[in-house]
Amino acid sequence: MELFEIIKVAPEKNQLITDSIVITHAKLKQYNKILCSISGGSDSDILIDLCEKFDESNKITYAFFDTGLEFNATKEHISYLENKYGVHVERIRAEKSIPHCCKTYGQPFISKQVSEWIERLQKHNFQWEEESFDVLYQRYPQCRAALRWWCNDFQKSETGKESSFNIAYNQYLKEFMITNPPTFKISNKCCYYAKKKVALKFRKQEKFDLNIYGVRKSEGGARRSAYKTCFSTNDDGDEYRPIFWYLNETKKIYEEHYNVDHSRCYSEYGLKRTGCAGCPFARNFEEELHVMKEYEPALFNAVNNVFKESYEYTRAYRRYIQQKRVAKEGITNGNTK
User: Fold this and answer.
1) At what angle do helices 297-306 and 285-295 cross, to 10 degrees?
2) 62 closest CA partner among 214, 167, 278, 192
3) Of 40, 49, 130, 214, which has the fewest Cβ atoms less than 10 A away?
């Protein structure tokens, strides 16, 4: 379909959607071999619908990176997308399975960044002690960056907000870990071997000149600081994020206007995100576990086996936070009981 015809029927007064249509049209004309990563989530549903408005020359290769811990509803939805748009989606398996990574390297805890720092400290047999950075650096000279995280050595923002590179960014985490040192290995390697490394390898093998994926700035987290615009160039090639500027309301307008359907994870299970099922990085993993137990019990059993220690440690940390807040509120109100 011609660009002018699509713009004519685009949602009125929504410049974000119109801009994404125009830029996507230009990118598909500019590049010849394009990789588009599809997750089966709500963002990628918009992504494939947007791309398929223009890919009449079949320049795009769609890929689904299967982590090994995916909802059956997600895999069903990938097949649905193939039928709806008349495309083929490559299913690419993890280089190392998530169960293998968790057993070999450690389990994810809180976030990728936190897990990275903890993994580095554990490798040096860190004792989770309360000392100054200078003292600890003498004891553990090979993990300077992780010690800076532990000692809150990274500078706060101009507004006084805690740096996300400091342990204090996660309330009471340092006090909790001193009182309750982890008894299991912690790592973010499952993300690397299940998705990141596989995607890079596939991209290099096939020599794509553009990588398209559905990251949105409003999601926050690491993505807020990792990307500044919808387009970037790095050592691995050019990258384009068509819905980078979309807000939640933008997504809703697009979905209703273009009749975009989502997987049963959203429509039936009531989830707000998909991806690696039961990932401890997700704030709402308890909700996911409840859903899995009801709708996909085999997956429920699998994730509880893979992430068992991380779930228990996260729950203990959350209880610790709650106890601290209650105690603080009691003191503030003059109640010392």
Assistant:
1) 140
2) 214
3) 130
Rounded Cα–Cα distance for residues 105 and 184 (Å): 10
Contact 200, 193 (CB under 8 A): no
Measured distance CA(233)–CA(239) in Å, rounded: 6
3-class secondary structure, 328: helix
- pTM for the predicted model, two decimal places: 0.86
Residue whose structure tokens are 């985490």: 173
For residue 101, give the nearest of 197, 215, 223 by alpha carbon.
Answer: 197
DSSP string, 221-265: THHHHH-SSSEEEETTEEEE-TTTT--HHHHHHHHHHTT----HH
| pLDDT tens column, 31-48 | 999 999 999 999 999 999
Burial class (CB in 10 A: 0-12, 13-18, 19+), 162: middle
> What whole-number distance in Å separates Cα of residue 294 and Cα of residue 185?
30
Q: Look up residue 210 and give its two tokens.
A: 């553009």
How many C-alpha atoms does 312 have within 13 Å on its Cβ side?
11
